[in-house]
Every structure is written in C-alpha cells, then in structure tokens.
C-alpha cells in the first residue's frame, strides 16, 4: 500500500498527544487480524475518530461537518478519511478501501453516544460493510468520564453543530475478539442480526473499559 505522508504525520501527532494528555488504558482480548479489518466502536466523544488510530492504520468514517474546517478538513481529506453526509457514498468508499486492503473505522451509533450515559441505537452500516466485504469486525469499547468533555458549538457549515471534545484525562479502550459474518448484505434479517451482535459486543467491551477505569487508583 502506498505510504500517505499526511496520514503518517497526523498519526504520529495523535500518538504524541495521547501520551502527553491522556491516561490511556488499552486492553486487547486478542491480536488484531492480519489484513484489512473493520473497527467498530461506541462514540462518547468527538475525539474518538482520532484516537481509534492508536489501534492501527485506517480510514475512519467522520461527519462531513469536520471536513468544513479550514486546514483541519484538508488534513482529513489528505489523510484518506471518509466524509459522511446524508445521501453520500461513504459506505461505498469504505467498502472499496476494505477490498483494496485498508482497514476502516466506523461508529455504528452514527452520532455521539448519549452524554448522560449509555449507548445510542445502532445503524446498519457496519453490518452491511462486513457482509459485503467479508472482512472481520474488530469491536472496540470506549469509556471516558463524559462530564469532562468540552461542548463546542459551531455554525461553520451554515447550521449549528455540537461536538463533545475530550481533551485530557483517563481514556480506556477494550478491543474484542474479531467477529466474522457471511451472507447477503441485502438480506434485512441477516443485517439486523449482525448489527445487534456487533453493538452488543461493543457495549460489553465499553462496560469492561468502565470497570477497569473505576478500578484504577486516582492519579497523584
């Protein structure tokens, strides 16, 4: 795969930022699969699409609003990230990347997890991608103290959008065993079942992250 220098520079920045600003706690139940994979995670903060790159090189589906910001949007585009907008072709782009050998990250809730806690209803994109491409799904459960997120509103896109940015503090990820699915991505029943399986596993892993975080002694 051709090396993307914008992506590599951005990933090094994310790694450095995480070391300096976050108390990372990453646990993996298994080695990551060889070859392309679909990383599927819950979405408690706007920082998640960037920190998920700590798990490996990938293109992540990110709201198109983020691409509207000058410089920041250019870095996202140059780094091979995928803009998600209503009526767009984000899933087709993601499927093409998976088939070409690149991993992809997706947040099945489609938007932020409720800031009061818990999880949103999953959408079917992750399941349809897994069925269409045959790549393994790597479930990821994220936990962070949501009360520490910074709420930032913007009207850059012409309408108000709100992001919950988590800038420093403890951040836990638990990476689960890869899941594999087969069948017709147009089979509604199969898609629904796969969606439920993926989200249930993400929820279990996020609770594991929460338990591990609560068991850690406070920083001194």
How would you describe this protein?
The structure is a single chain. The chain has 220 residues and is an alpha/beta fold. The chain is 35% helix and 21% strand. It is built from 6 helices and 9 strands, in the order αββαβαβαβαββββα. The protein has helices at 5-21, 48-51, 72-78, 90-100, 125-133, 188-215; strands at 22-28, 38-41, 59-63, 82-84, 104-106, 137-143, 150-154, 161-165, 169-175. The strands form 2 sheets. Strands 1-9-6-2-5-3-4 form a 7-stranded mixed β-sheet. It has a two-stranded antiparallel ribbon with strand order 7-8. α4 (90-100) runs parallel beside α5 (125-133) and α5 packs across α6 (188-215). 35% of the residues are buried. The mean pLDDT is 94.
- Give me the strand/helix succession: HEEHEHEHEHEEEEH
Q: Kindly report how far apart the N and C termini lie.
A: 44 Å
What is the helix tally?
A: 6
Low-confidence segments, given as residue ranges, are none
| SS strand fraction | 15-25%
Relative helix content: 25-40%
Overall pLDDT: 94
How are the strands of the biggest sheet laid out side by side? 1-9-6-2-5-3-4
Gyration radius, rounded: 17 Å
Oligomer: single chain
**Biggest sheet: strands, sense, closure?**
7 strands, mixed
Q: Can you tell me the overall shape?
A: globular
Helix and strand content put the structural class at alpha/beta
Beta strand count: 9
